[in-house]
Amino acid sequence: MADLHKLTISELSEKLATGECSSVDIVTDVLSSIDANDGKAGAYLTLNREDALAQAKAADERRAAGENLPMLGIPVAIKDLLNVKGQPCTCSSKILEGYTAPYDATVIAKLREAGAILLGRVNMDEFAMGSSTENAALGKTSNPWNLDHVPGGSSGGSAASVASDEAIASLGSDTGGSIRQPAAFCGTVGLKPTYGRISRYGLVAFASSLDQIGPFTRCVEDAALFLDATCGHDPKDSTSLPEQDTGFRQGMMEHQDRSWRIGVPREFFAEGLSAEVRSFVEAAIRFYEESGCTIKEVSLPHSSYAVPVYYILATAEASSNLARYDGIRYGHRSAEAEDGIDLYYKSRGEGFGEEVKRRIMLGTYVLSSGYYDAYYLRAQKVRALIRRDFDEAF
After folding, report:
1. 331 near 351, Cβ under 8 Å?
2. CA distances from 216 to 28, 156, 208 (A)
């Protein structure tokens, strides 16, 4: 069947339930779209073609046995920092070339349980450090709408795979905008859930207090379906929220009257905002107001500190998290080293890209003796003020 690769999760789920198509049909159509388009967009690093078809066949058998889950038989692309057992997990970095994941991340296990089809690994900025997918060591990804433009980042491959009809949905991660920004660049729906709503177990860490996993989809309903399938408490993740909340799609369907209250922070319209961006945001505000929403101006007075606070906290945590890549336990090992210390230096020097090195150096500096209180501790205090602004606005 043609054009199955262009449909939403909910549309395909309905077709699967009525027997109008099979999961094998959907995966075959998506693989054909990848063959036709991925040479342009470059979303995928690896594609598990035979395994995807085998998963699709198993999904059809589950449906024939009576299962009718919304994600059953739906092809999904995976950002290359989530562990999928038996598959490479490189974070688009030379330092992890050759590494094969020995286990499934919790979010991957939940997708398997829900019957989703794992298509392959999509590109990203190295270790999720970047906003354009130009800091990728293992491939180039372009914006499907204009191949001369970037898809955003760090989850650029995740956004591009959905925007170019090479996946029905995809998984990404967001530390400082890495789902929301590429979703905006590529015209997809991107959701960064509440921290701890989706387990981070099996996610390669960038900044542990900020990292969060979330979906890219074609519509808001699909994002809610995806969240229902992947959220929940996980004892393997100490930061996992204890609540077992699901029912996001049901809640969304029950609140479609658009009698919403939408806060517009005045600080977001400060000097430096692009006139083109301002005009589109103002048009969106007018749309929701004309649709029956209540628009209320709010204040987030500490917004101007958000970027410097992010760069202090994120780089500090990255410096700590990336210390494990030493050329000894796994990953790239320099062939030029003369002794143990030299092995450490050269393996990291050869394996990490320039942006990763910059962030490690900055993070090490703000954590160093004499600077911890001046930078890291102060940033933590300002972070609390930024959070308080949101609490008061809500």
Report:
1. yes
2. 21, 11, 21
Q: CA-CA distance, 9 to 116, in Å (whole number)?
A: 10
Read off the pTM: 0.95
H helices of 65-196, in order, are 106-114, 156-163, 180-186
DSSP states along 123-161: --SGGG--SSS-S-SS----BTTBTTS---SSSHHHHHH
> Which tens digits make up the pLDDT trace of 159-171?
999 999 999 999 9
Tokens of 315: 């780089």
Active-site residue set? 79, 154, 178
Residue 194 DSSP code:
P
Neighbours of 318 (CB within 10 A): 25
Residue with tokens 């299962």: 67
Of 123, 147, 119, 144, residue with least CA distance to 31: 119
Cβ–Cβ < 8 Å for 232, 360: no
Distance between CA atoms of residues 67 and 70, nearest Å = 10
- Closest C-alpha among 154, 158, 212 to residue 189: 158
Span 17-67, pLDDT tens digits: 999 999 999 999 999 999 998 788 999 999 999 999 999 999 999 999 999
- Cβ contact 8:222 at 8 Å: yes
Euclidean distance between CA atoms 191 and 106, whole angstroms? 18
